Amino acid sequence: MTITLIAAAAENNALGKDNQMIWHLPDDFKRFKQLTTGHYIIMGRKTFESFPKPLPNRTHVIITRQQDYTAEGCIVVNSLEEAIKACPQDEEVFVIGGGEIYNQSIATANKVELTRVHGVSPEADAFFPEIDLSKWKMVEEVFHPKDEKHAYDMTFQTFIKK
Fold first, then answer.
1. Which among 4, 53, 66, 145 is least buried, having the fewest CB atoms inside 10 angstroms?
2. What is the rounded CA–CA span in Å between residue 134 and residue 31?
3. pLDDT score recorded for residue 128
4. Do 16 and 23 form a contact (C-beta atoms < 8 A)?
5. DSSP assignments along 20-82, one per residue
């Protein structure tokens, strides 16, 4: 199983505030959709509740401490370990947030798909964990300049565990 963390984070690792993303980057959304469609996606309850509806063509695995939590068509578990066990063991699985779930899962992850958002250090209450370059190797980096649809420069980065 490949466990991939996928996120968009500012240079200060900011992810979001008040359960909302800080920016609107259509090409980052396209990349997220392209990479995660057809796969299991693991997330915390608050991340799930930030969506207007479940994301199409993906199996949602929601981690919550609430014992009686239900979400139609989704798998609900109470720990990261249970979430991983609920996923196919021979496929790539994506961890999509939030900050607490990323912090719990970075040690077991094999891959990180990070959109690094440049030129902004927003106020945030959720952060992506620091990527320790003694443990991770960047294998791909694609710069995307800001344009009429994107307020910020960004770089799509792929890391694999050494």
1. 53
2. 27
3. 98
4. no
5. EES---HHHHHHHHHHHTTSEEEEEHHHHHTSSSPPTTSEEEEE-S-TT---TTSEEESSHHH
Residue 50 CB neighbours (<10 A): 16
This prediction has a pTM of: 0.96
Does the structure show a pLDDT above 90 at 131? yes
Question: Which pLDDT tens digit goes with each residue over 79-88?
Answer: 999 999 999 9
d(CA 141, CA 159): 9
Query: What's the first-to-final CA gap in the chain, in angstroms?
Result: 16
Q: In what order do the strands lie in the sheet with 14-17?
A: 20-21, 14-17, 126-127
Domains of the chain (ranges, CATH numbers): 2-42+90-161 (3.40.430.10)
Residues in the chain: 162
Task: Judge whether 71 and 122 are in contact, CB under 8 Å.
Answer: no
